Amino acid sequence: MAEKQSILIVEDDLDLAEMLNAYFRVQGYEVYTAAWGEDAIRISQRSTPDIALLDIRLPDIDGYEVCRQLRSQRRTESLPIIFLTERRDRIDKLQGLELGVVDYITKPFDIQELRLRVRNALRRANQKTLINPVTNLPEGKLLDEQLEKLLKSNDWVALALLVRGLDAFRDTYGFVAADDVLRAVSLMISNIVRETGGEDDFVGHPSPNQFVVVTSASRAHQIAERIHNRLTQSMDYFYPLKDRHGERNAPRGGRLALVTKTVSPAEGRFPDMSTLKAAIQTITGP
Question: Which structural domain range is residue 10 located in?
Fold first, then answer.
């Protein structure tokens, strides 16, 4: 059974909140409700919803401030938010759009229209999850589609690349610095594949610290060698100047390093997608 999608309803009109709660539960959603902005922020950090319906006028902080705080938190920075409001002024709509609100519905509204807008916003959000927001590389279903093609071919090599030590780096220097590492690594890998690979070569992002390059057997060695050389030379530069060079300043868990693995039909036939993905994602190294 598919997991229920969840909605956070932030509305201080208790009758309206109760009606929306009942309606969306009947539609098959998991529903969280809050009448105060601060409560909404706490709920969203504890049980991250898939979408939020947010009233602008609230008893404590207004919907704009709730939106700003949700956008400032990593867990909710991409949360789709629909404003529910009695305000119809253009300036109010513009302010909401500047905060990244995906839709804006004025009261009174048609409940069927609201349901469709919620459905459409969730579909758009799900489509975005096909591309990793940090590396801008395909993941999820897009990656699966590319790997599926390999099961029917014998001329391919998958280069699995793991950035070892990234979790320790993130714990020490923060999420922003770790995301910068992933962006830089993805850009270097993509540029090498563009320079050295063929038109059908593919770069994907199968897991948070891992990349995969799919290429032909004839190009695999050259691409792998260039990636290894370029990334190995670059790893120290991701650290602050005072922490570069040497294990002395390494965070617990070790310094950043690239670990690689080659997967190909030479290892034997992969009977299904799960076997192939397990082979690609299982990387160990010194």
Answer: 6-128
Considering the domain architecture, whether residues 39 and 73 belong to the same structural domain is answered as: yes
Which parts of the chain are beta strand (E)?
Answer: 6-10, 30-34, 51-55, 81-85, 103-106, 157-164, 202-207, 210-215, 257-263
Secondary structure letter of residue 28 according to DSSP: T
CB 156 within 8 A of CB 45: no
Instruction: Please tell me the predicted confidence (pLDDT) of residue 1.
Output: 43
CB 196 within 8 A of CB 242: no
Mean pLDDT of the chain: 87
Spatial distance between the Cα atoms of 257 and 121, rounded to a whole number of angstroms: 39
Shared-domain flag, residues 151 and 114: no
In this structure, the answer to whether residues 102 and 146 fall within a common structural domain is no
Report the CATH number that the domain containing residue 166 is assigned in CATH.
Answer: 3.30.70.270
Q: What is the pTM assigned to this prediction?
A: 0.59
Same domain, 171 and 274: yes
Average pLDDT over every residue of 45-69: 91
